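quick one, 133 residues, struct below
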Amino acid sequence: MELGMMDLVSVVVAALSSFVVGGLWYGPLFGKAWMKVSGITEEKAGEANMAKVMGLSFLLQLLAAGVLLMFIGPDAALGFSVAAAAAVGACWVAPALGVVYLFAQRSLGHWAVNAGYQVVAFTLMGVILGVWP
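---
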């Protein structure tokens, strides 16, 4: 499959959309709950190298959005794009996190916050990739 320039732009926009979702998800929506279940304090959060975290996160989201576009196809209908992306989040990513969290002995609440973010982020990526010209 050959991807055109518009497809590459849609991948970048889809990757960026995960930061919008993440800002809301881990901020006003579930930020306090996530900090509690993950054991992250304000002090510990402040120690993170945010340039590294954001830069590498963006590269990983570019990879995810690019492979998602290859999976759904550049000419897929919006309904299929959204359903396929939601299924990726809910049926691949969330269960994979669940396995890791079970072995790491992390709480169900911790998994729920992070898995929920992934489902919403992938679904939004599917919307963007499905409506992009």
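The mean pLDDT is 95.
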